[in-house]
Amino acid sequence: MALRVLRGDSRSRLSAVLTALGVAVGTALVVLLSSLPGAVDARGERSQWQYSEHAEPTGTALSSADFVRGEQITRLDVSGDPRVPADAPRLPAPGQVLLSPRLAELTRTMPPGELADRFPGEVAGTIGPEHLRYPEQLVAVVAHPPGALDATAAGHEGGWAAGQAGTQDFLLKFLAWVGIALLAAPSLVLVASASRLTAARRERRLAALRLAGATPGQVVATVAAETGFAAVAGTAGGLLLGWPLRMLVMHVPWGGGTWLASDFTPSSATVLGVAAGIPALVVLAAVLGLRRVVRAPVGAAMEHSKKAPKAWRLVAIAAAAAFFVFGLAFAQQTGNIAVLLASLVVIVLSASVVGPWLTAVLGTLFSKLWRRPSTLLAGRRLRNDPKAAYRSASGVVLAVFVGSMALTLLPGFESQAGGGRSFKDSVLYLNVPAAQAAEQRRLIAEQLARGGTEATVATAGRVVVETPGNSYSGLVIGCAEAAEVTRMAVGACAGPPSVRADPALNLQAVGLRVVPTGGYGESNGSEGGVPVPPGTPVRPLGGQDPDLVDSVLVDPSLVPGVLATGETTVAVAPRNDADREEVRTAMALAAPGAVVQSRELVLADQQTILGDLRRITAIGLVIASVLAGCSAAITAASSVVDRRRTFGALIAAGTPRRVLARALRTEAALPALVATLGAGAGGVGVGYGLLSLFKIDGALSPWVFAPVALGVLVAVLAASASGPMLRRVASEPFAEE
């Protein structure tokens, strides 16, 4: 029976083709998004060896970050026979280096003093893509003689890069599962819209079969077969579409680089689950829509009015909000986001429960308050069949929800950007134990002199300045050196040694103690502190950066013993920006394995993450908008086909076609306007909730209203698809109806 219908009815064939296309798009998206966590894991496994950090009797391996012309370099210095993962590339011999292909190319094209000299030794080979986080990654492995590396002198206290990689990996996995939860819904709406293209015609046909004696099981089997053909074909097409799609997605950067094509290979379990699950869901959705035909075939055949939705549907919104709050609390306490993701799905589904009731209320209001013919026709449609009327706006509502949530999250993440130490942007620095500071300063100065590079080399002891009631972060540094390397306006350096601080702190020398810090800027305890001599002048710091308002500078002669322990920073300020790469090279040669830091390196990581978020947000919004627009256009066209009898009667009674076209646009725009306002508010609320998960204070941006305006515009434009269908219906004879 299903095959005969598809062969003999062109409208049913069109519906089947559109359903198959919708299923193919949804399948491809689900497979792609579900492969992202695996792609992240593949990246991590390939690059895990780069973050090894050991100092042991057999050998030493020190991971560090370097920087060249705005790009980050991952560097691994090794000596002896250190423990590294089994899947690491073969380590070079002492006096040799391994470089990634792109880093090797840069060393050949840039002056040696800017880059190549940082990696002393013979280039023994290149690192293959199977050992790189992404193909463009800059990686160097530098081998030193046994015993040449000193982890303590280099200021190492743990792997720097593993933590950063872990943060980005968690973020991408989180976004992948959020994408599955949110973008899968517009895909299902597109499928549902396509399958409803001939819903009224199918309903009358099935009602006739029931009245002719067909059993409910036969009716259900017929629809399952008719829908199953399209669902299976669409799923197969989506799985095939996934292969060229991943070749496109592999060029989308994340974390500073692109991907390997093999990263997006879905697991067998994913492919089998999608191949079996998506057709089953599509068929189940079609079968569930047959309740009226199965129970009351006469009512379906005569197109009796449907029951109006009840106000109890509003409970769905409250329940979804409560579930989301519970998911947030559960994620904050356990770190498990499964419940939180489930709550997002529930929020999305709750819109489809409340939407028809809201549409019916709008229809009642417009039917009673307006007298314009097109508005009255639209109001009657919204009131008499709110489920069908809301269907055209449902995809747009989901897109607006996703857009408002994303545009709430982005400003919150951007507000966390910035920071860094109190040094000037051009200053390069490294942290070392206080006992090693003088030696490191001498080695760096000698290396700079050897290369003919002019720069100021200074040491700044990291301390905590304690008062009877408060404590402040501070640097033990001379006034002249502070003027050269810090962002603080120290003023005139003439006069006796002093403490310099913002006047708002109201510091007095009486009771001040200077305590050396540990490796993470924490106080070692007041027992190691040195009191500031009474009567020491406290001078103001002028033009202070707001980030440094609580910083204090202490002259080294006031606390002569404080720098014997704790951590000291060796800072180098080049005379001009053109010498910055030479200064990096000199510091890398003077302190092998040390992490040469700078403000730009801190900001580069932040900007990379923010750029990734903006890119993913833009891609997600485009996909959601396209899916929503397609589903709205198909629904608008199907609404004309479903009401062929009604429009034929209206046209025969003399109703102008332009009035009907205006009514179609109105009935699409009204529910879209109200529902998108609610979806926008919901997206903002969910966005603030997710920001609280990351302990970020959000700021409402005017851009969060853009998805609402865009959603209404998409709904109205999609409604214009009903125009050609209306002209076609108007030109057909109505006697057969």
From TrEMBL:
<feature type="transmembrane region" description="Helical">
    <location>
        <begin position="668"/>
        <end position="691"/>
    </location>
</feature>
<keyword id="KW-1003">Cell membrane</keyword>
<keyword id="KW-1133">Transmembrane helix</keyword>
<feature type="transmembrane region" description="Helical">
    <location>
        <begin position="219"/>
        <end position="243"/>
    </location>
</feature>
<feature type="transmembrane region" description="Helical">
    <location>
        <begin position="388"/>
        <end position="413"/>
    </location>
</feature>
<feature type="transmembrane region" description="Helical">
    <location>
        <begin position="269"/>
        <end position="290"/>
    </location>
</feature>
<feature type="transmembrane region" description="Helical">
    <location>
        <begin position="337"/>
        <end position="367"/>
    </location>
</feature>
<comment type="similarity">
    <text>Belongs to the ABC-4 integral membrane protein family.</text>
</comment>
<dbReference type="Pfam" id="PF02687">
    <property type="entry name" value="FtsX"/>
</dbReference>
<keyword id="KW-0472">Membrane</keyword>
<protein>
    <recommendedName>
        <fullName>ABC3 transporter permease C-terminal domain-containing protein</fullName>
    </recommendedName>
</protein>
<feature type="transmembrane region" description="Helical">
    <location>
        <begin position="174"/>
        <end position="198"/>
    </location>
</feature>
<feature type="domain" description="ABC3 transporter permease C-terminal">
    <location>
        <begin position="620"/>
        <end position="721"/>
    </location>
</feature>
<dbReference type="GO" id="GO:0005886">
    <property type="term" value="C:plasma membrane"/>
</dbReference>
<keyword id="KW-0812">Transmembrane</keyword>
<feature type="domain" description="ABC3 transporter permease C-terminal">
    <location>
        <begin position="180"/>
        <end position="297"/>
    </location>
</feature>
<feature type="transmembrane region" description="Helical">
    <location>
        <begin position="311"/>
        <end position="331"/>
    </location>
</feature>
<feature type="transmembrane region" description="Helical">
    <location>
        <begin position="616"/>
        <end position="637"/>
    </location>
</feature>
<dbReference type="InterPro" id="IPR003838">
    <property type="entry name" value="ABC3_permease_C"/>
</dbReference>
<dbReference type="InterPro" id="IPR050250">
    <property type="entry name" value="Macrolide_Exporter_MacB"/>
</dbReference>
<dbReference type="GO" id="GO:0022857">
    <property type="term" value="F:transmembrane transporter activity"/>
</dbReference>
<feature type="transmembrane region" description="Helical">
    <location>
        <begin position="703"/>
        <end position="721"/>
    </location>
</feature>
